[in-house]
Amino acid sequence: MSNLKFCQGPLCHTYHTQDRLKGIKGSKTYQTRRRSHMYYGNRNFCDQRCLYDWVNKYIDQALDHYGRTTEAKHLTEENAWHKTWNWDNGYNNRNYIYLNAVTHEERPLTEAQYLDSNYTLNER
User: What is the pLDDT of residues 29-79, one digit of tens each?
Assistant: First the structure.
């Protein structure tokens, strides 16, 4: 079974490129790209132009459906923690840390904790 999927750009078929031109001589048409690997928009679009075509056409509908931000969000000491890393003095090893962007407090992490997307900071 083929793993090919179509680009989701609403105007993909209108762009005149050689790889979109399909069919037999005399009845060729430009078609939506079909690829095994897409690289843009969470792997749904063949190029940025198609991604932005989709955004321009559907962004308001998506925001209305999923909910628009209606008030300011605030970065506080409690929600400012994020994983990051820095090099040691000899630039040989990474030091993994939890860093608070508000207080600049650092807490050490192991590499496994850093790579674990489910790991959260243990509160004191």
Answer: 999 999 999 999 999 999 999 999 999 999 999 999 999 999 999 999 999
Say how far apart CA 46 and CA 36 lie, in whole Å.
10
**What pLDDT digit, counting tens, does each position of 68-84 carry?**
999 999 999 999 999 99
CB 10 within 8 A of CB 23: no
Q: 23: domain range?
A: 5-66
**Measured distance CA(124)–CA(116) in Å, rounded:** 20
Q: What is the DSSP code string of 70-111? A: -S-----TTT-EEEEEEE-TTSSSEEEEEEETTT--EEE--H
Whole-angstrom Cα distance, residue 92 to residue 38?
Answer: 35
Same domain, 59 and 22: yes
Instruction: Please tell me which residue, 119 or 64, carries the higher pLDDT value.
Output: 64
Give domain status of residue 103, yes or no.
yes
CA 20 to chain centre: 25
Indicate whether 102 belongs to any domain. yes
Same-domain check for residues 62 and 86: no
